[in-house]
Design goal:
Layout (H helix, E strand, L loop, with lengths): L1 H5 L5 E5 L3 H15 L8 E5 L2 E3 L2 E2 L10 H7 L2 H9 L7 E2 L2 H25 L21 H19 L4 H6 L1 H18 L4 H21 L8 H16 L3 H5 L7 H9 L2 E6 L2 E6 L8 H8 L1
Helix pairs in contact: 4-5, 5-8, 5-9, 5-10, 6-8, 6-9, 8-9
Keywords: ATP-binding, Ligase, Metal-binding, Nucleotide-binding, Zinc
Organism: Papaver nudicaule
Pfam family, one: tRNA-synt_1e
Length: 295
Amino acid sequence: MSERYLTSSFDIHGGGMDLIFPHHENELAQSCAARPKSCEIRYWMHNGFVNIDNRKMSKSLGNFFTIREVTRLYHPLALRYFMMSTHYRSAVNYSYDQLEIASGSVFYLYQTLQDCEEALLPFREQKPEASEPKGKNLRITPEAQECINKLKDDFSAQMADDLRTQDFLNGALQESLRLMNSLVNKLKTARQHRQSLFLSLAEMEKEVKMVLDNLGLMSSSSYSEVLEQFKAKALTRAKLTEEDVKAKEFTKSDKIRLDLKAKGISLMDVGNETIWRPCVRKLETEATGLNNELD
């Protein structure tokens, strides 16, 4: 099968840690005997197990979930982020809580991109102000340039160092998102150097999108569509509808807010309007929790 689709020589052959010996060694010996070019496989990569309650997830133990089951409650991007939050050679400690955290992380990521897009919209076709440098003399801020350099360098370094996705997600990427949010806030109030702030934010957005695309975390849908998809999954997990949330009399009871937060729904007052978004909740159940939701 691999010869048919990849030819007899390809870069990466993967499998679980339990296949290092003797399975893959025997496979290599058999393949090389049958097809000498099979010995040209460059890398043999072995991933850690997915564990539940410190036991390997497997069909034989009956303690496994299918991707289809998990993505009924969580966005596929949240599942991808969760898997990349642990080094591929380490055991993945699967839990409902960790999926909640991953879901919140990706929602924050896309909310940042959405806020960035909205902040840049008024400036996309606006001409530079007469009091500001024009053309090639316009530069991004030193802080933004330093952050971009760190983002690119860290991404290259972590990927070259045995695909250390978890270090990149928790390090340079988070710093970039924080700076993007800071630039968005500055653009709302700044009276000077607005074009420089605009250019800085636009460059930050471009570089962040590039690394996210390489990691498979960029969706073909718009930012707003992805955020709505995450909100729909949150409602499914909470066993609520949009109408249920909007029908609450928010100003009359803090208890309602606490009850909704316990179900993964956070209410925020923005001006005269109350809006909601998914939030991370602490769950008492882990492996059994998903089973109960799926029953």
